[in-house]
UniProtKB/TrEMBL annotation:
InterPro entries: Aminotransferase_I/II_large (IPR004839), PyrdxlP-dep_Trfase (IPR015424), PyrdxlP-dep_Trfase_major (IPR015421). Keywords: Aminotransferase, Pyridoxal phosphate, Transferase. Gene3D superfamilies: Type I PLP-dependent aspartate aminotransferase-like (Major domain). GO terms for molecular function: pyridoxal phosphate binding; transaminase activity. Its cofactor is pyridoxal 5'-phosphate. Pfam families: Aminotran_1_2. PANTHER family: HISTIDINOL-PHOSPHATE AMINOTRANSFERASE, HISTIDINOL-PHOSPHATE AMINOTRANSFERASE-RELATED. Residues 9-161 form the Aminotransferase class I/classII large domain. This is Aminotransferase class I/classII large domain-containing protein.
Amino acid sequence: ASSVYFGLTHNQLIQRAVRVTTKPNDAISLIIPDKDIYYQIAKNQQLNILTTELTPDYELDINLILEQIKKEDSKVIVFSSPHYPTANQLKEEDVLALARETEVPLIVDESYVEFGKYSLVNQVQKFDNLTVVRSFSKAWGLGAFSSAFLVSNAKNIEILKENYII
């Protein structure tokens, strides 16, 4: 079974991944600041938006996020890394700790990963809850040829395929 799912844009793929993991009135965890599109996706899906600020060093506050997930019953976490507004790539060990410490789906937008130090693509088979979304239109300069892909374990890809015509 394949671990890759293609789409027109990374935003479309994030929206699809969020849609198959939530239903209206579920909670979504977002990091602030981050891309506005995540808020638009959440509003379009009629989700309750939970936010967690980055630390003063622009890193994930793992304990605060985990506490929020448990307290508010968040169904999905979405953020970018490299982090779009700050140009800071979140610490790999923090992202992996978050994936390890919760079963909540974790969608990481790596549309600017070519400007970072690492990618989580090679980690998706180790975590059932980890999904990575990449884009060809940023660093590859293919803005006129919008194309993106999502990488996750085969089970998650099958769920996407069952819910969307490809």
